[in-house]
Amino acid sequence: MAVEKEIIVAIEFGSSKIRGVAGYKNTDGSVQVLHVEQADARNCIRKGRVYNIDKMVVCLKGIIEKMEAALDLQVDRVFVGIGGQSLQSRKNTVARQFATKTVISQEIVESLLKSNRAAAYPGYEILDVVPQEYRVGLDVTTEPVGVLGSQIEGTFLNVIARTEVREYILQCVEACGLEVAGVFIAPMALAECVLTEMERRSGCVLVDFGYGTTTVAVYKSNLLRHLAVIPLGGQSITQDICSQQVEDDEAEKLKLKYGSAYSESGAEELTKNVLTNNGRTIEERVLVEIVEAREEEILSNVAAQIRNSGYQDKLLAGVVISGAAANVQRLDKAVSAKLKAEKLRFVRVVPLDLHTAYADTVVRDGSLNVLLSLLNAGSHNCTSPKASVAVVPEQGSEETDVQPAGYGQGAGESVEAAEKDNRPEERQEPPKPRKKSRIKEWLEKVTKTITEE
Question: Of 162, 90, 170, which Cα lies nearest the Cα of 129?
Fold first, then answer.
């Protein structure tokens, strides 16, 4: 039996789209992207939160069916990412006193973690816990085991979200007949993938500009220190332009072509008029003012979150920008001016060694950064071979089609035919056969490793 690739399938529930990706990791650390699929989900998801389960199930089923057809495999389980407006972090402190000086053990540390997990946040649930530091006596350390002291105080960063956020996502996945292979916090998966070790250690802020939200994650000393989601994004700018009696799609194009997040007064290039599809004209100056004003509001909120983290003067690695809504002209100048960032880096595509059979599979505009980060975070196989069998001819026909095991004259003949056609032996109520996808043909030709018994 040949060794099979473990194909990972990940789903991103974004603030406007639902996206799916399938791929696998090579032994050299590179990632093979097999297929990317997406669907507009604005009628069932708002700011990263599912609000219409029925419509979301339809969207998700459509994504899965297209991926199965492209891969010629059955998707059994998926990794999912959780993000959205209610996602945030809260600090919590748990202390323990001892009658005499005690050597701190792993059991004591675990008891602090357990007590922290019991912290109540009405309407919210704890999705993850990031230990910050421990105070043993007068000493502060991140590794307290083995330290002698009469008391210990642990500080934890609890990442929380509204209870229904995870619940609704899991309901949608299960309604599609799929298992949940794992749940990741999307901004943390993104940070793990796009931030360098130096950036996480020296301190930086990762800002992910999305369609309906902007996510802020502050890192210092290799630890997440603050996480917040601002309910403003690229959609906010587009809607402002729509107030000029312009349709959504055209407003989005005008934003990217003429809008600017940072303008210089008296610029001569702002004198032209822009003709819209409905025959109206808009001054370019008006477009720039709309985009600049809204970007300034978003960045003001980002700056406030950085101050709330308490690390605004300790982020030596500066600002890292990601997301599809970060493609507005002169956003770099606006970020530098508003956030006082001396160092600034844009991430248009995750810094992985990516391989794909088709050039248009992975776009480099920042829109797939979270999705590819979820793929990279996945750890085990999510697919299985499809059951497939040719149609049995009617009685009297001279055609000799492949028959399922146990059919007609005997299981032995059917098994032999199945092996000859490179299909699994056991088949129970198989669906209609499908043609091999171009990805499956390419995968078999190049790797010669994905086979079926």
Answer: 90
Tell me: do 332 and 368 sit in the same domain: no
Give Cβ neighbours of residue 170 (< 8 Å, ≥ 6 apart): 80, 180, 183
Q: Is the pLDDT of residue 452 over 80?
A: no
Share of the chain above pLDDT 90, in %: 71
Q: Which long-range contacts (CB under 8 A, 24 or more apart) does 283-288 make?
A: 284/258, 286/244, 287/241, 287/254, 287/255, 287/258, 287/259, 288/258, 288/259, 288/260, 288/263
Position 10 scores a pLDDT of 98
Q: 255 pLDDT exceeds 70?
A: yes
Shared-domain flag, residues 305 and 202: yes
Instruction: Mark whether 220 and 361 lie in a shared domain.
Output: no
* Residue 189: both structure tokens together: 């998966």
The answer to whether residues 336 and 204 belong to one domain is yes
Per residue in 414-432, pLDDT (tens digit) is 444 444 444 444 444 555 4
- CB crowding 409-438: b at 16 or more within 10 Å, else e: eeeeebbebbeeeebbeebeeeeeeeeebe
Q: What is the pLDDT of residue 138?
A: 87
Domain contains 111 = yes
Quote the radius of gyration of the chain (alpha carbons, Å). Answer: 27
Q: Is 440 contained in some domain?
A: no
Residues 214 and 316 in one domain: yes
CA distances from 331 to 217, 326, 372 (A): 19, 7, 24
Domain contains 206: yes
Q: Is residue 432 part of a domain?
A: no
